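dude i think i finally got it to work??
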Amino acid sequence: MTKKSLDLELNFWKDYPMIAGIDEAGRGALAGPIIVAAVILPTGFKNPLIQDSKVLSPNKREKAYQIIKKESLEYTVIAKNVREIEIKNPLEATKEAMIETISHLKIKPDLILIDGKEKIMIEGFKTISIIGGDRQSINIAAASIIAKVTRDTLMRKLHVEYPFYNWFENKGYPNKTHLSAVFNYGICDLHRRTYEPVKSLLKPNCDKKKLHARYCL
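look at this
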């Protein structure tokens, strides 16, 4: 995945000098929280390390994270835990967290750029949702880095408590190692019971052997 020119704000900074970007990390994970971050960078801010978090190596992502913490005008982070995700569903939990990140900002942005296709209305603010926004907006890219580094750090710490699942490497996402551990050792309280294959595993009549073959072989 190549780096993109994050110049979307050039279309907006004249009329909206305070722009916040919002992005999430962990919505597709099988375990652990969803983390949402909002970031306001200074008008005209540029740094080649600030890119969509997915195109950066862990080392560069950590360096970018430190730059954002130092150079941003403000940033906020909100976590939605596993039970909240199960009760509200992943999309609604994410939307709620996005609204909360803005309410926790001391600086009130003139414009909010949100990664994704879902239209999110935040009372008193102008919002624009952008598909692939983390590859177009430097504020969204910065938010993606803050969210991902925050979540990855948490999942590495949780790996010590739950080593079977190899969260140090997969960060709670459903790769083969993680899924095999779920079938071999069962789930823990940080697994999302509304996500497959956990949802099916919890059914009394679950054919575990068949389900294992479907997800792990």
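The chain has a mean pLDDT of 95.
im so relieved honestly
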